[in-house]
Amino acid sequence: MVTVKGVVKAGGKPVPHCKVGLFPDVEGFDPSKHGYGFGMTNDKGEFEIQHPNGTKGIFPGTYKVTFVAWVDSKGKAIPPETKPSEVPGGVKNLLPSKYEALSDTPERLTVSKEGAEANFDLSTQ
């Protein structure tokens, strides 16, 4: 596996507490057959991708990239291990919904055998 790290911004500003997902850009994605990974941004919007087994990195390939920045009804970021459905009062994604769904996201990333530096500046609309 290779290192993928970068920064997520929206409208030119860092997006803290954003979950970044990389899923193979293939027909019929099956998590039991295809490698994928996740990362969580820090306060500066920086992230590093890791495999679901906890190993840092991801396999080279082309990926669809998803982004969610969940906050509770008071605007506080929810912890990454918390399921949105378990938050009293509900949650809101600070980013446009087009970035949340694997079927809708316009973002792609090609990861070479050397890894990738992935910097995203997302639309706020």
TrEMBL record:
Q: Give the protein's recorded name.
A: Carboxypeptidase regulatory-like domain-containing protein
Q: Using the UniProt annotation, give all residue ranges assigned to the region (Disordered).
A: 104-125
Q: Where is the composition biased (Basic and acidic residues)?
A: 105-116
Recorded superkingdom = Bacteria
